Amino acid sequence: MESWIERRRQTDEPTYQAKPFNAQGAEAEFLRDRARVIHCAAFRRLQSKTQVLGIGESDFYRTRLTHSLEVAQIGSSIRHVLHSAGAAQPWHAYLPPPALVEAVGLLHDLGHPPFGHGGEVALNFLMKDHGGFEGNAQTLRIMARLGEYSSEHGLDLTRRAMLGAMKYPCLYSELAVPEHDGIRPADCKPPKCIYDEEAAVRDWILQPLSNADQARFVQFSVREVRGRRVATSLHKSFDTSIMELADDIAYGVHDFEDALALQLIDEKRWHGEVSPAIFECARDGIAGQGTEFYRAKLFSHSDKERKHAISKLVDYFVSSVIVTEKPDFSAPLFRYNAALPAEQAHVLRILKEFVFDQVIRRPQVQAMEFKGQRIVRRLFEALYENLGRLLPRDTAKDFEECASERGKMRIVSDYISGMTDSDATRLYHRLFSPDVGSIYDRI
């Protein structure tokens, strides 16, 4: 790990200086970051990874790839709103340039495994005694190690791009719940974190900060939820806060649009419970429109009418973004965060909870999630127990040369998490279905 840090420092540019983006060549570094994300294999694989609804059911709804594209676009819009409205504000000079905002948005889900959060739960269950698994932590691992642009530095991105994509800076061992039996999401949902193995990478990312800012940035809170310990990181960078807002808006609005288009939403419940709660909060109407506008358009059979209402919802959130301040931090990139005002935050929370209840908790969706978990578990057990002989040759060589059980487990976890839904399904059938498979199939 020390060699990784020392070699990486030789090529890294200072990116936390005051007004760093006015310097000649700074924007080019972030254009390179964006290009490397777009052209890396992990990003392309997102086209066949589940966002909310399973791959292959329809060509309309979002995959992880289209979701990531939308997060990048919404993040750019948030940045534009803040740039236009805040020229006289002290945080204006520290807004990320457009290429960096897009790069961070495209990066944010790079580490998510096949079968959505169900696959994440399954891998965390399998890895719980060996460092755990979490999608955001895997994103940092791809950026730092697994990406193909450098044998030492993964995607070899700038320090600030890696900071922006590091949503949760606390370590797995600090946040993890004591192990539970079973594979129920309530028991095995991983904490939002980074792996202990990447602690030195995190320290390198934070190295330009003062010691006080570094110590404060990695603080976390602990609370009891239904008798269960839940630990959560407390802080994020300015760039991350923009990306996270864009992610929440894309989930709350665009996944809601998918559910509407596929007629998964209970219209009666929407009109009876959800819509009144939203418009009671947003008394002046959302984006200047009234309840009848959304009543008529959201459940219209016209794609154009529905999209009109969805666009108004997105604009309602994006145009409302403000910047808050955490005065305990001295570094501007940590002192300032983008946020939604209370009204808009409440409306977005209602939308997200409605999508979760109406779509994700549906038995049909849960059945697909359960099946994905079983596929991940059986693949992991088969690949690990067969001493690397079922893995591609380069991966099998790394597996055989690894001296520790934890390291071997991580190699298998890396391999499976990098698979698409369809790749994992095909390999599962090749290994476990007697009438499927050929020596000519590629592994």
Automatic annotation (TrEMBL):
Q: What biological-process terms (Gene Ontology) are attached?
A: dGTP catabolic process
Keyword Hydrolase in record: yes
Q: Which domain of life is it from?
A: Bacteria
Task: Please name the PROSITE patterns in this protein's record.
Answer: HD
Which residue spans traverse the membrane? none
Q: Which InterPro entries does UniProt cross-reference here? A: dGTPase, dGTPase-like, dNTPase_2, HD/PDEase_dom, HD_domain, PHydrolase_assoc_dom
Keyword annotations = Hydrolase
Identify the SMART domains for this entry.
HDc (SM00471)
Please give the Pfam families that the UniProt record associates with this protein: HD (PF01966), HD_assoc (PF13286)
Domain HD intervals: 64-252
One of the record's GO molecular function terms: dGTPase activity
HAMAP family with a match to the protein in the record:
dGTPase_type2 (MF_01212)
UniProt name for this protein: Deoxyguanosinetriphosphate triphosphohydrolase-like protein
Give the originating organism: Massilia horti
